[in-house]
Amino acid sequence: MCPACVANVMLAAVGATSTGGLTAFAVKRFFFNPPEIIKQTKQGKMKIETLETDQSEVNSSKVVSKAEWLIARRDLLTREKELTRLRDEVSRHRRELPWVRVKKQYVFDGPNGQETLTDLFDGRSQLVVYHFMFGPDWEEGCKSCSYLADHFDGANWHLPHRDVSFAVISRAPLPKLEGYRKRMGWRFKWLSSHGNDFNFDYHVSFTKEDEKKNEAYYNYRKGEFIMDELPGLSVFYKNEDGDVFHTYSAYARGLDILVGTYNFLDLVPKGRDEDHLDFSMEWVRRHDQYESVNTMRISR
Description:
This protein has helices at residues 3-6, 8-11, 55-59, 66-95, 143-149, 152-156, 174-184, 198-201, 208-213, 260-265; strands spanning 36-40, 46-50, 100-101, 107-110, 113-116, 126-131, 164-170, 190-192, 216-218, 221-223, 232-238, 244-251. By secondary structure, the protein is α+β, with helices and mostly antiparallel strands. The longest helix is centred in the N-terminal third of the chain and has 30 residues, at 66-95.
């Protein structure tokens, strides 16, 4: 078990609603409780409206006529369209964020030798970096980051065709990263920031001093020190003059959008089915550690 997974139960004590998803593995309700939906007012501002939902109704398997089902489905479609429009608006605001020039020179150890942050753009103008939890002394990568990473290679077939490069960066030495990547069968580019400040500057790694103070800055707020590595994602842009800018970073439940498996689970009757677990990702395993199941049934 990686240190991140050991820390899962500890995270419940933090009690901050802003720490969900990957960093609040121990919080059974990911975000809002009671269930809520984000809506827009007539003035176009975002608003959160609480849904008065009977929990027994949510868990029931009520059987109705096709006509009754269609009425309920159309009502849900209205809410889905509201969420889609709001997501589009949030994405627009994300693109409109101001940028910060990256002045520090970062050098990483990669499969092709040493590379700078500029090198990672690989001839493109946009770069997405996933901050994978794998500390220098860890024997294997975080199982929850591994869960996300299982989705990266599929996206990476397509990202270059939209002027986007993708890389994963961790503090563990390169040989450990390469060994784990081979074990997992991943193809994405994984580099080591061991020896530079990259992880610390983007607030996903923390020092012994942070631990001593029991204080860490994560997800845009100061809170209790949880552990020396936490997950995140950062986005960068390079202009024609070669200048690099930091445009966006996300942490905690801001990373849920990367988890395609959860998107599938949100469609099925049982959903993520995690409420009965001690923490939300308790069921997750590295994909080579699951008990054997028949994941594909082919009718002939």
